[in-house]
C-alpha cells in the first residue's frame, strides 16, 4: 500500500518554498490536452502551454507512451556511456537543421551557458585571448545562471549578485546601425532571440537578421540564435530561423523540446562544435535516456507538415478573434508574434496592466501569460483543439468585459 499523500495547499508555498515565484491562487493537479483541473475540481482552459513548453498539451498519449516505455528500460546511465534515445534524437535534430552536432543538457539556461562557453572557446582557439566580446540585445532573456543573466539585457535580473562576467555589450534590438557600431575584431559572438519572448513577443526584422549574419561573417564572430522559446514548432516552422533563412552557427533550444519533460539542447556546426573536446564542458543529467526518449517523440510529431501547417492555421484563428476583442474593448493596440507564440500588446490606456488581465482570466477559469507588464502572451499547445481555442477566447473576452466594467 502506498502511503497517502500529505495534504497541501497554496498557502504552503509561502511557508516552505524559496520565494522566487508568486504562483496563482489555485493548485493544478491534472491536465489533459489544453484543459487543466485544480484541487477543487475546477476545469481551466490552458492557453499557456506551461510557458511555451507543453507543445502537445498535457498527457499526450504518444509522449506518455514514450516516457513510460523508457521508464521501464533505462533512466540514467551517465555520459561515461552513451544511449540510444540520445543518439536518435541527435541524429534527427541534425538531419532537420543547419547543425552537424548536438549537445544535450537540462534547461534553456544550460543550453545558452554551453553556447556562450563554446563561442568563447572557439574564438580563443582560433584568434587568441582578446576575442571575448559577446554582443546581445537590450531586453533579451537568456536564462538565470550568472553568465546568462549577464548576457541577457535586463539589469533587474543581473544586478545585485556581485561582479559580473566581463566582455558583454548590449545594443537595442532590431537596430542594425547600433549593432554595426559595436561589432569589431574583439567580438566573439552575437546572440539574438529570433522573437524576443520574455520581454514582449517582439519579432526580429528580416533585414536585422541578415545584417547580423553579414557582420558576424565579416569579423569571424559566431551568430547564436536563442530558440529556447521559439524552437520546436512554436512559430510554425521547426525552428524560427527557418522562416528567415538566416542560419546561425549555434542554436539553443529547450522549452518545447521535451514537451514538459526537462531537456535542453545546443546545436552547432562541425566547424564550431569541434572546439569543445573531451572534458572542456559536461553535464551529469544532460542527454539522459528518459528526457531524450520523450524529446524524440516530440520531434517525430511536431516535425510533420500536419502539425506545422496546423500551427499557422491556429495562429489565424487566434489573431482574428484577438483583434476583434482588442477593438471592441479598446484593450489591445496590436497582436504580434508568429505561430502559437502570440503577444497582445496593451493599448496606452491599459499600459502596465497585463497582471490584471492574468488575474481576470483566472477568475474565468482561463490560464494566460504575461510577457512583461504591457503584453498578454499566449503560447498554447500546438495541437490545441478548435473548440478549446474558441472556449478559451470566449473566457478571455468575458474576463476583459468585466475588467472594462469594473
Ligand atoms: C525560457 C528561456 C530561457 C531560459 O530557459 P530555462 O529552461 O528557464 O533555463 C532562455 N532563453 C529564452 C529565449 C527563454 O525564453
Write the layout of secondary structure elements.
Layout: H1 10-16, E1 28-32, E2 35-38, E3 43-46, H2 49-52, H3 61-71, H4 84-96, E4 101-105, H5 108-127, E5 133-137, H6 146-151, H7 155-158, E6 168-171, H8 176-182, E7 187-192, E8 195-196, E9 202-203, H9 206-218, E10 222-226, H10 241-244, E11 250-253, E12 264-268, H11 270-273, H12 289-302, H13 305-329, E13 332-338, E14 341-346, H14 354-363, E15 366-367, E16 369-370, E17 375-378, H15 386-405
Parallel strand pairs: 3-15, 5-6, 5-7, 7-10, 10-11
Antiparallel strand pairs: 1-2, 2-3, 4-12, 8-9, 11-12, 13-14, 14-17, 16-17
Helix pairs in contact: 3-12, 4-12, 13-15, 14-15
The structure holds pyridoxal-5'-phosphate.
The site of pyridoxal-5'-phosphate has 15 residues, from helix 5.
**CATH class identity of the largest domain:** Alpha Beta
| Strands side by side in the biggest sheet | 4-12-11-10-7-5-6
What is the arithmetic mean of pLDDT? Answer: 97
- Outline the biggest β-sheet: 7 strands, mixed
Judged by helices, strands and strand pairing, the structural class is alpha/beta
- Give the cofactors and ligands: pyridoxal-5'-phosphate
Structure description:
The chain is an alpha/beta fold. The protein folds into two domains: 10-59 and 305-405, Aspartate Aminotransferase, domain 1 (Alpha-Beta Complex); 74-302, Aspartate Aminotransferase, domain 2, CATH 3.40.640.10. Helices cover 40% and strands 18% of the residues. The protein is built from 15 helices and 17 strands. The strands form four sheets. A seven-stranded mixed β-sheet has the order 4-12-11-10-7-5-6, sandwiched between helices. The radius of gyration is 21 Å and the shape is globular. The model has no long low-confidence stretch (mean pLDDT 97). Bound molecules: pyridoxal-5'-phosphate. Pyridoxal-5'-phosphate is lined by residues 107-109, 112, 141-143, 193, 197-198, 226, 228-229, 254-255.
